[in-house]
Design goal:
By secondary structure, this protein is mainly α. Helix content is about 55%, strand content about 5%. It contains 17 helices and 4 strands. It has a 4-stranded mixed sheet with strand order 1-2-4-3. A hairpin with a 2-residue loop joins strand 3 and strand 4. The longest helix is centred in the N-terminal third of the chain and has 22 residues. The two termini are about 40 Å apart. The relative contact order is 0.09.
Length: about 325
C-alpha cells in the first residue's frame, strides 16, 4: 500500500513537472514541411557599390542597375548625381561604417537561413503573404528610420547592427539606450517586427493609450510566433535586465495606469511617455526601460489569446477592434 501511494505521488510530481516545463517552454514551431517560399537571398548593395572603380563610376553603376535600381534610380548618370555618389563613397563616416559592416557581415548566410525559416513560418500563418526582396546598405547609422519597407522591398541599414561597443555610435550622438540594441542578434527580430508593422499597418495617432498598447502588443506577439525560439528581450528590443524588471513590476505598472486613469487617455503627451523611445518611462522608476506600454500591450495580447484559444494568428492580426480585444483579454496581472 505504501508503495502504491509513493508511486502515485511520483506520478503526480512528474505530471506537475511536465506541465511546468511546458508553461515555460518557447512558442511551438509549426510543421513547415509543406510550406514553400521562393529562394531567399539578401542583396548586398554596399558590397557591390564599394567595390566599384571610382574612376569609372558611371559605368559601374550601370552594371549594378538591374539589381539595385531601388538605390541607384534612373537618373544616376548625370554630373550632379555622380558627384553626390562620389561624396557618399568618400565620406569618412560612411567608409568607416562600410569597413566595419564588411568585417561583421561579410557573409550573411546565417541571417539568410534564419529569415528563410521565419518567412516560411509567416507563409504558414498567412498564405497570401507576399515575400519581400531584402537589401542591405550603409545608412550612416540612421537609427531614426531603421529597417524600412518600400513597395515589396525590405531595406536593412546594416551599419546599425555593428555591436554596442562600436565607438562611432557614441561619437555621432546616438543615445546609449538605443546603442545597447544595435547588436547583430537584434537584426532578425527587427526585420519581423517591421514586416508586422507594415503588413498590418495602423496609424496610432489619436488612439487611446490602451489601444496603442494593443497595436504594439499584436506586433510583438506576431514576432514571437514567427521566431519561436528567440528570447523575449530580443523581440521587444530590451536587454535581459530590462525585461526582467518589466516582469517583476508588471502588476505595479498596471496599477499605476489604472489608478491614474491613463488607459483611455489619447493625449499625445501622455501616450508618448509609455510608447515612445526613451531611456526610461516617465512616472516609473528610472531603472526600468522606456516603451513599457509595448511590454504591457504584449501581455494583454498573451492574455487575450489564452482566453480566446480558437483565434488564429491571422485573425488576431486583422482584428482592429482594439477595445474589444482589451475587454476580452481580461488582463489582470497578479502581484509577484
Amino acid at each position: 500500500m505504501r508503495f502504491q501511494l509513493l508511486l502515485a505521488a511520483c506520478l503526480v510530481f512528474v505530471a506537475l513537472a511536465f506541465i511546468a516545463c511546458n508553461q515555460n517552454s518557447p512558442t511551438k514551431q509549426p510543421d513547415l514541411s509543406n510550406v514553400s517560399i521562393k529562394p531567399l537571398m539578401i542583396h548586398r548593395y554596399e558590397q557591390a557599390l564599394f567595390t566599384l572603380p571610382t574612376d569609372s563610376l558611371g559605368i559601374g553603376l550601370q552594371k549594378l542597375l538591374p539589381e539595385f535600381e531601388l538605390f541607384i534610380g534612373q537618373d544616376f548618370n548625370n554630373a550632379t548625381s555622380l558627384l553626390q555618389m562620389q561624396n557618399y563613397l568618400n565620406d569618412p563616416g560612411i567608409q568607416e561604417g562600410w569597413l566595419a559592416s564588411e568585417k561583421m557581415f561579410h557573409s550573411m548566410q546565417t541571417q539568410e537561413a534564419a529569415l528563410t525559416q521565419a518567412f516560411k513560418t509567416i507563409k504558414y500563418y498567412l498564405s497570401n503573404w507576399q515575400q519581400p526582396e531584402i537589401y542591405t546598405f550603409i545608412s550612416g547609422y540612421d537609427v531614426e528610420n531603421g529597417i524600412f519597407m518600400t513597395a515589396n522591398n525590405l531595406v536593412i541599414p546594416i551599419d546599425n547592427y555593428l555591436g554596442a561597443a562600436y565607438k562611432p555610435y557614441k561619437q555621432v550622438g546616438i543615445p546609449i539606450y538605443i546603442i545597447e540594441r544595435m547588436e547583430p542578434n537584434y537584426l532578425i527580430p527587427d526585420v519581423i517586427k517591421t514586416i508586422a508593422t507594415v503588413q498590418f499597418a495602423d496609424e496610432p495617432l489619436g488612439k487611446s493609450l490602451v489601444e496603442q498598447m494593443v497595436v504594439a502588443g499584436k506586433n510583438l506577439y506576431f514576432t514571437q510566433q514567427i521566431l519561436a525560439n528567440t528570447p523575449d528581450y530580443l523581440i521587444i528590443g530590451y536587454n535581459k535586465e530590462q525585461m526582467e524588471w518589466c516582469k517583476r513590476n508588471e502588476s505595479e505598472m498596471w496599477a499605476f495606469l489604472v489608478s491614474q486613469k491613463l488607459l483611455f487617455n489619447n493625449n499625445k503627451n501622455i501616450t508618448s511617455k509609455f510608447m515612445a523611445e526613451a531611456p526610461f518611462t516617465d512616472g516609473f522608476p528610472k531603472e526600468g526601460p522606456g516603451r513599457t506600454g509595448h511590454f504591457i500591450g504584449w501581455q494583454i495580447i498573451e492574455s487575450y489569446m489564452h482566453n480566446q484559444p480558437k483565434t488564429a494568428l491571422s485573425t488576431l492580426m486583422q482584428n482592429t477592434d482594439y477595445q474589444d480585444i482589451f475587454n476580452k483579454s481580461n488582463y489582470k496581472p497578479k502581484r509577484k
